[in-house]
Amino acid sequence: MLQRLYDKTLSFAEHPHALWVLAFVAFIESSVFPIPPDVLMIPMILARPKQAWLIATVALTASVLGGLLGYAIGAFFYESIGQPILATMGKADAMAEFNSRFNDLGFWAVLTAGVTPFPYKVITIMSGWTGMPLGTFIATSILARSLRFFLVAGLLWKFGEPIRDFIEKRLGLLFTLFIILLVGGFLLVKYL
């Protein structure tokens, strides 16, 4: 079923209103939808490299606005909506323990989920549920999603189709390693 949803989402990349479809997918992916906007961004940018920055901007804007919906779900509807979404992703069991530490790591949690393959929707809902300061959430979401979408757009704009395989299979791992090195560097400086 997920493969059919993925294929259907991908088919919209050639739709005449693909930017609107991208905005919709980026918006709902930040709170409930399982397919990331990159699925649409990659073929759209390859087809129209001159629009790479516009495509990244649409994905960024819609994703951050969708993140606010996820935040609201966590803040106001966690029991009725947020918890079932997280439960279907297998994340519900660790919520109590995670809640106690989440806001201490809030910036890093949002940044990590915003740029890595970790589901961003989990962090948007958790941010609202734990009461993370809204300003921190918005600023970090903008930073993280900008890094992700504009790096993908820049790589595709510069290198075209040859970089596609790298982005689809290895970029998430590189982002994850980058976050680990960044956090490790801060911890090293703090404790030396």
Question: Could you give the topology of this structure?
Answer:
Elements: H1 2-11, H2 18-29, H3 38-47, H4 52-76, H5 78-88, H6 95-102, H7 106-115, H8 120-130, H9 134-159, H10 164-191
Helix pairs in contact: 2-4, 3-4, 3-9, 4-5, 4-8, 4-9, 5-8, 7-8, 7-9, 7-10
- Structural class estimated from helices and strands: mainly alpha
Mean pLDDT: 79
Determine Rg (CA atoms, Å).
Answer: 17 Å
Strand content: under 5%
Q: Tally the helices: what do you get?
A: 10
Number of beta-strand segments:
0
- Please write the string of helix (H) and strand (E) elements: HHHHHHHHHH
Pfam families: VTT_dom (PF09335)
Protein name: DedA family protein
Domain VTT: 36-155
Keywords: Membrane, Transmembrane, Transmembrane helix
Notable features of this structure?
192 residues; 79% helix
Question: What does this entry look like structurally?
Answer:
The chain is mainly alpha-helical and 192 residues long. The protein starts with a helix and ends with a helix. The chain has ten helices and no strands.
